[in-house]
Amino acid sequence: NAGVMQNPRHLVRRRGQEARLRCSPMKGHSHVYWYRQLPEEGLKFMVYLQKENIIDESGMPKERFSAEFPKEGPSILRIQQVVRGDSAAYFCASSPVTGESEQYFGPGTRLTVT
Amino acid sequence: QQQVKQSPQSLIVQKGGISIINCAYENTAFDYFPWYQQFPGKGPALLIAIRPDVSEKKEGRFTISFNKSAKQFSLHIMDSQPGDSATYFCAAKSALGRLYFGRGTQLTVWP
Questions:
Q1: Fewer CB near the terminus (10 Å): N or C of chain A?
Q2: Do the Cβ atoms of A42 and B103 come within 8 Å?
Q3: What is the distance in angstroms between the Cα of B41 and the nearest Cα belonging to chain A?
Q4: Do the Cβ atoms of B97 and A99 come within 8 Å?
Q5: pLDDT of A39 above 60
Q6: What beta strand segments (E) does chain A contain?
Q7: Closest residue in A to B94 (Cα–Cα)
Q8: Are the C-beta atoms of B31 and B95 separated by less than 8 Å?
Q9: Which of B42, B53, B47 is CA-nearest to residue B76?
Q10: pLDDT tens digit string along B54-104?
Q11: Which residue of A101, A102, A112 to mutate against B (max B Cβ within 10 Å)?
């Protein structure tokens, strides 16, 4: 039973470029959460999605960031016009269809903006 | 405002000793309290979790103690091993589903 998968694992972008981070939840999970981890800090919630629905985006910066979880395919976190401050590890977590509390995390995507 | 406060920031324990990490929260609507273990370069791994109607939960060498009236919970690692050296995060879940994390405790277990 494969765990949560994220790709790419490492992503380098120059300032002003776009970053696309992908997350495939565990089999049978239809709830996806994105978190960001800055160096020496805990994880900060960004957005919670179900298939084709954004449930809670209260942690997303108002500009340049967007997320989707289409009917088919992985969840995508998109960052437009990246800036140095976007450099962080981005983690995706998933939980089961029934909305159980357990969230299982992927290995993360480490974004570096040069 | 930090919804979940975690201490200490770092902890050094001798092999075989007990590691204790503490967390406090403000929002009484939180309904689930997990602990995660994270190794460098990896994602957080769910270690153990508790609901507020239970005062203690034990799984192997890991125990969560939960004090609802004080709004505090703690992780105890018995017989700590060098392989336990990692960063530990406590968290609290809101009714909507998001997790609020503490800032983490870097545990080092000396052989």
A1: N
A2: yes
A3: 8
A4: yes
A5: yes
A6: 5-7, 10-13, 19-24, 29-37, 43-50, 53-56, 65-68, 75-79, 88-96, 104-105, 109-113
A7: A101
A8: yes
A9: B47
A10: 999 999 999 999 999 999 999 999 999 999 999 999 999 998 889 999 999
A11: A101
